[in-house]
Amino acid sequence: MNYRRPIAISAITICFLVLFAGFTAPSARAQSLESSTHKQAISANPFGLLLNLFNAEYERVISESSTAGLGGSTYFGSSDNYVNADVFWRFYPSGNPLSGWAFGVKAGLTRVGDEGTFFGAGFDVNRSWVLGKNDDFYVGVGLGLKRMYVSNDASFDLKYIPTFRLINVGYVF
Question: Which domain holds residue 166?
Answer without folding.
Answer: 4-33+46-172
